[in-house]
Amino acid sequence: MVDAGKLIANARIAAGLTQARLARRAGTSQAMVARYETGASSPTIAALQRCLRAAGCELVLASQPASNSAAGYGDLSRSSADLLRKNRVAIRAAAARLRARNVRIFGPAVRGGAPLNSRADLLVSYPVAKSGLLPLLRLACWVEDMTGQRVDVLAEETLTGQALARVLAEAMPL
Amino acid sequence: MTPVEDQLMFLSKSPEKVRAAAGAMLRASLRRAPEQERAAFLVLLGHLEEMARAIDQLPPALTRHEPGFPWRELSRLPGLLSRSDVRADAKVLRRTLEWPMHHLRPAALRLNTYMSFHPDWASGEKEAAGESEE
Q1: b vs e for B60-93, b when ≥16 Cβ sit within 10 Å of the residue's Cβ?
Q2: A158 and B87: CB-CB below 8 Å?
Q3: pTM
Q4: Which domain holds residue A27?
């Protein structure tokens, strides 16, 4: 995939413009153009189009079906459980850093029928009585940032007695 | 006072209310008074929800200046506690809230001070946000 920053830099250099000049024409700042070109920020399509037009170029976009799931777009048709499983090594490692272990998935995501991006539930073994709930919430934020998948992370100790039996029965290793 | 300053002021006063409700819940739990414990939990949950709403209204560009404080985690806490399958344990909640409630007021006041000394704190970020939210 072509890097947006490189597109801007190539167009700007080809047009003989400085970053400041391009920025003025595109209605942004030199600092922002520099951030785009170095990859520190990703421009939106509209911002990319403005920068390219400022350099006398036109942005042309096209889409095509991915040839297979390994192309990186296959996740659009996958379930949230698959998405999490695909990242299980990283998720387990992140959990281990927080001293949580035995990462499992439960809830609608394993029962089937849960659309992608519906919330998924992860279960871990973690001493919440000793360490509180913040590390579980931190892990949930981390998993969401990495996968884009909404998750809650719970520990056995956080579940009500009634829920615990059900959750343990359906939980599957990640 | 700007809306952000309002939220920071609100947050700097929140720990007292949260601690009081968590303490009432713990005392009820130790007395084995489940109804009182449940009532105290609902009061606590209300405070946590108000706090989460205030946090959600703070621009990430600002909270980034206090990276050691668990803004996102606190914002998510009431959602987790509202789940029907989650057991609200008084000791776990006290343990969970101990550190953030000790540090919330200083963190909110530091952000307020930062805004006072950097009136243009949001200008660079606004531009970035403008670019990315189109």
Answers
A1: eebbeebeebbbbbbbbbbbbbebebbbbbbbbb
A2: yes
A3: 0.70
A4: 4-54
